[in-house]
C-alpha cells in the first residue's frame, strides 16, 4: 500500500490550524503525495530522500494536510468573511451543556435565531434598495442630483420601481446560497466510514454513524431559509406598494405572511428521516415560494404611482424593530434554558457556567447587526452627500429624509458601548489575574529549575513571564460573561425600537427639544456608527488581502478552522464543515493502513481534535492496531470546556477506553494552547475510573535548560506550542505506542 510493507508501523501526523505545508509537518524538504487530492492529501518523504524529521527508527512517517480545505482557495476564504454571522449562529448549538436536548428545545431556539439572521440579512438589502433608494432618495431632486444611475428611476412609477429594485435582495440571497454550495464541493463524496448502522438521532455523540454527514439537514434548512428570505422581501414589497386594505392587497399580504409563518413552523421541526418525504416537502415549499413571490412582484409591477411621503418605507421600521425584539426574546430563552440545565447537573462545572450557547448566539446577533447597520448607514451617508441625519439634525428638505430605522441607531450605540465595556473588562481581568498567574508560574519554575546561576536569572524571568502569559486563556471567561450581560442590557431598547424612539429622540424628550443632551446623544450615536463601520470595513479589507495574500489567507483561515469544525445543523448559509471530509477521510486511511501494521495517529494542536474524532469513527475491527499521540492539544483545556456535551471529560475517558488507553499526550507549561488531558496527571482528581488515565499525560520541561550547552552558542529556546517532534520524549512515545499495538 503506497510503499508500506506489511507489518511496518506508520506514524500519521495531523497538523493544527493555519494551513501549514506538508514539508513543515514532515520536517522534510522533499515530499510526495500518496493519497488524497489538492484540497486535502496524505504525504510522505520522497523515496530515497531520507527520513522525516523526528522519525522513530522502523516507523514510516506520513502527513495529512487538510488546511487547504479552509485556506487553499482565495475566493472561498475571502467570501467566507461575509458569512461570519451565520458561522457564529451555527456554532452556538455546539456549546450547549451536557445531557440530551429534551424536546429538542435548544435546537429549536437556535434554528429560530438563525432564521432571524437570514431575515436581518434580507432586511439590510431591502433597507438599501427599496427604502433608501426607491422610497427615500429617488423622489427628491437633491438626492438624485448628479446621479444619472438613479435619475431614470424617477420616471418609473413607485410600484414598478420597488418591484424592479426587489431583484437586488433576491440576487443577494442567491449569492450567499451560491457561496455555501460552491465552497462545499471540495467536501462532496465523503460520507461516514463507520461500520455501525446510522443513528436515529445523529449529533448526540461524535462516535455516532452519520455525525459528520450534514447534507440532508443542510438541504432541508437551505430551502427553508431561502423561502424565509423571499417571504421577508414579499412582505416588505406588499407593505410598500399597498393602496389600502383592498381585497387584492389582503390576499397578497396573507400569502406572504402565511409563507413566513410556514417557514417559522418548519424551523421548529427536524428534517424528515425519509429522503423521499424531504424532497416532497422541499418541492412544495419551493413551489409556494415561487408562487407568492411572482404574485407580489407582479402585483407591484402593475401598481401605479404612490406618493413616497416623508417617512420610511411603510412597515420597514416595524419589521426591523420586530426582528430585534424577536432576537432579544430568543437570547433570553436560550440563557434561561442553558443555565437551568447547567444548574440541574451538580457533577460538573462547565466553562462559562453553561452559558456558551447564548454567548455565541449573542455574538452572532451582534456581528449581524454590525454588518447590517454599516451597510445601511454607509449607503445613506453616500446618498445624502455626507449628511448624517437624525430627528434633531434633519436633512435639508431637498434631500429627503434618508433616515435608517431606529433599531439601527440603537445597534450603533450598543456596539460602541460593547467595545468600550469589553475593553475595560478585558483589561481589568488581565490585571486582576496577573498576580495569580505569576504565583503559579513562580511555583513551576522553582520546581523545574531549583538551582539558578546569576547568569541565568534574566533567562528565568523570561520563562516565568512566558508561563504566566500562557495562562491568559483560562481568564477570558468573565469577559465573555460580561459580553452576554452587555447584549442582554441592550434588550432594554427593544420597547423603544417598537414604538420608534431612537437615542436622540429619547434624549430630546428628557432634556427638551434641541437640548444639549439631545445633541450629545446624536454625536455619540454618530461615533458608534463610525466605530462599527470601521470594524466592518477592516473585515472587508482583511477579506480583500486574504484574496491577494496567501499569508493573510492562512491567518483568516485560523478563525475558520475553529469555527467550521462542527457540522451545519442550524444555519445553512454558514461556511461548510471541513471535518465532514477530513474525519471520514482520515478514518478510511487509518483503516487501510491498520490492515498492514500498527498505526499511531499523531495530532498536533487542533489536529488532535481531528484525530480524536477519527478514532471515534473507526470500525471496532481495527482499533487494536491503532493508538493516539497528541501534543500541544487543546482537547481538555479548550474543547472539553467549550463543548462539554461532545468532548467533555466523560467523552475523553470513553476515547481512552476505546483504544485500550494506548494514548500519550505531550504538553508544556509554556504552551498557550495545549495542556494535560486528564487532571490526575497533575495531581487533581481524575474523572476516569481507569487507572491508565494517569499515564496519558507527559509533561515536558520548557526550555530544557536555562544555561548554554557546551557544544552550543545560545541557550535552548522556549518552544511553547511548536515543535514537539524534535524531543526524545516524542520518539519514545511513538515507540511505546507502536510496540503496544503489534
From TrEMBL:
SUPFAM superfamilies cross-referenced by the UniProt entry: alpha/beta-Hydrolases (SSF53474)
InterPro entries, sorted: AB_hydrolase_fold
Transmembrane segments: 73-93, 105-126, 162-181, 226-244, 250-269, 281-300, 320-339, 351-377, 407-433, 479-501, 521-544
Record has Cell inner membrane as a keyword: no
Keyword RNA-binding applies: no
Keywords in alphabetical order: Membrane, Transmembrane, Transmembrane helix
The protein's name in its UniProt record: Uncharacterized protein
Organism: Micromonospora ureilytica
Amino acid at each position: 500500500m503506497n510503499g508500506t510493507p506489511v507489518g511496518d508501523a506508520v506514524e500519521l501526523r495531523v497538523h493544527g490550524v493555519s494551513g501549514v505545508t506538508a514539508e513543515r509537518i514532515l520536517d522534510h524538504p522533499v515530499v510526495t503525495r500518496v493519497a488524497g487530492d489538492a484540497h486535502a492529501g496524505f504525504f510522505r518523504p520522497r523515496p530515497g530522500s531520507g527520513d522525516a524529521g523526528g522519525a522513530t527508527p522502523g516507523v514510516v512517517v506520513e502527513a495529512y494536510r487538510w488546511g487547504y480545505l479552509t485556506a487553499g482557495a482565495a475566493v472561498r476564504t475571502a467570501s467566507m468573511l461575509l458569512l461570519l454571522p451565520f458561522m457564529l449562529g451555527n456554532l452556538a448549538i455546539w456549546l450547549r451543556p451536557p445531557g440530551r436536548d429534551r424536546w429538542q428545545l435548544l435546537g429549536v431556539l437556535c434554528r429560530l435565531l438563525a432564521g432571524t439572521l437570514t431575515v436581518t440579512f434580507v432586511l439590510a438589502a431591502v433597507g438599501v434598495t427599496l427604502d433608501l433608494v426607491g422610497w427615500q432618495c429617488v423622489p427628491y431632486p437633491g438626492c438624485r442630483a448628479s446621479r444619472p444611475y438613479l435619475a431614470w428611476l424617477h420616471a418609473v412609477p413607485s410600484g414598478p420601481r420597488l418591484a424592479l429594485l426587489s431583484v437586488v435582495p433576491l440576487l443577494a440571497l442567491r449569492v450567499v446560497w451560491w457561496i455555501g454550495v460552491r465552497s462545499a464541493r471540495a467536501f462532496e463524496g465523503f460520507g461516514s466510514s463507520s461500520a455501525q448502522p446510522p443513528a436515529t438521532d445523529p449529533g448526540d455523540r461524535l462516535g455516532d454513524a452519520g455525525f459528520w454527514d450534514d447534507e440532508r439537514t443542510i438541504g432541508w434548512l437551505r430551502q427553508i431559509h431561502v423561502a424565509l428570505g423571499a417571504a421577508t422581501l414579499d412582505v416588505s414589497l406588499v407593505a410598500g406598494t399597498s393602496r389600502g386594505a383592498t381585497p387584492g392587497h389582503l390576499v397578497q399580504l396573507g400569502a406572504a405572511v402565511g409563507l413566513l409563518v410556514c417557514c417559522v413552523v418548519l424551523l421548529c421541526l427536524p428534517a424528515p428521516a425519509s429522503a423521499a418525504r424531504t424532497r416532497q416537502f422541499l418541492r412544495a415549499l419551493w413551489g409556494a415560494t415561487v408562487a407568492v413571490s411572482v404574485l407580489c412582484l407582479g402585483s407591484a409591477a402593475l401598481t401605479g404611482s404612490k406618493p413616497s411621503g416623508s417617512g420610511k418605507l411603510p412597515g420597514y421600521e416595524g419589521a426591523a424593530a420586530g426582528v430585534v425584539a424577536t432576537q432579544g426574546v430568543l437570547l433570553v430563552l436560550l440563557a434561561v434554558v442553558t443555565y437551568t440545565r447547567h444548574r440541574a447537573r451538580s457533577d460538573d462545572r462547565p466553562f462559562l457556567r453553561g452559558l456558551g450557547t447564548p454567548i455565541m448566539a449573542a455574538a452572532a446577533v451582534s456581528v449581524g447587526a454590525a454588518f447590517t447597520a454599516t451597510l445601511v448607514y454607509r449607503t445613506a451617508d453616500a446618498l445624502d452627500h455626507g449628511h448624517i441625519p437624525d430627528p434633531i439634525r434633519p436633512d435639508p428638505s431637498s434631500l429627503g429624509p434618508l433616515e435608517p430605522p431606529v433599531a439601527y441607531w440603537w445597534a450603533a450605540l450598543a456596539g460602541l458601548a460593547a467595545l468600550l465595556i469589553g475593553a475595560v473588562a478585558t483589561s481589568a481581568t488581565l490585571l486582576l489575574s496577573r498576580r495569580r498567574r505569576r504565583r503559579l508560574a513562580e511555583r513551576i519554575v522553582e520546581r523545574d529549575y531549583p538551582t539558578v546561576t546569576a547568569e541565568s536569572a534574566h533567562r528565568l524571568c523570561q520563562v516565568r513571564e512566558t508561563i504566566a502569559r500562557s495562562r491568559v486563556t483560562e481568564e477570558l471567561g468573565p469577559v465573555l460573561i460580561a459580553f452576554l450581560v452587555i447584549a442582554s442590557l441592550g434588550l432594554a431598547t427593544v420597547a423603544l425600537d417598537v414604538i420608534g424612539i431612537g437615542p436622540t429622540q429619547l434624549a430630546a424628550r428628557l432634556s427638551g427639544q434641541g437640548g444639549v443632551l439631545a445633541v450629545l446623544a446624536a454625536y455619540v450615536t454618530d461615533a458608534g456608527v463610525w466605530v462599527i463601520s470601521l470594524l466592518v470595513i477592516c473585515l472587508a479589507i482583511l477579506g480583500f488581502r486574504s484574496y491577494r495574500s496567501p499569508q493573510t489567507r492562512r491567518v483568516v483561515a485560523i478563525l475558520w478552522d475553529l469555527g467550521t469544525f462542527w457540522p451545519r445543523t442550524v444555519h445553512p448559509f454558514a461556511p461548510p464543515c471541513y471535518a465532514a471530509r477530513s474525519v471520514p477521510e482520515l478514518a478510511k486511511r487509518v483503516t487501510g493502513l491498520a490492515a498492514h501494521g500498527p498505526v499511531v495517529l499523531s495530532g498536533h494542536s487542533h489536529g488532535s481534535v481531528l484525530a480524536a474524532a477519527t478514532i471515534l469513527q473507526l470500525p471496532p475491527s481495527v482499533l487494536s492496531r491503532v493508538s493516539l499521540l497528541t501534543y500541544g492539544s487543546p482537547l481538555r483545556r479548550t474543547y472539553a470546556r467549550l463543548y462539554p456535551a461532545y468532548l467533555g471529560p466523560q467523552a475523553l475517558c470513553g476515547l481512552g477506553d476505546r483504544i485500550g488507553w494506548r494514548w500519550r499526550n505531550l504538553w508544556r507549561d509554556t504552551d498557550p494552547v495545549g495542556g494535560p488531558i486528564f487532571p490526575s496527571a497533575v495531581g487533581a482528581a481524575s474523572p476516569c475510573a481507569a487507572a491508565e488515565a494517569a499515564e496519558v499525560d507527559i509533561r515536558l520541561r520548557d526550555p530544557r535548560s536555562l544555561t548554554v550547552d557546551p557544544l552550543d552558542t545560545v541557550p535552548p529556546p522556549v518552544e511553547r506550542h511548536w515543535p514537539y517532534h524534535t524531543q526524545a520524549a516524542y520518539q519514545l512515545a511513538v515507540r511505546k505506542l507502536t510496540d503496544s499495538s503489534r
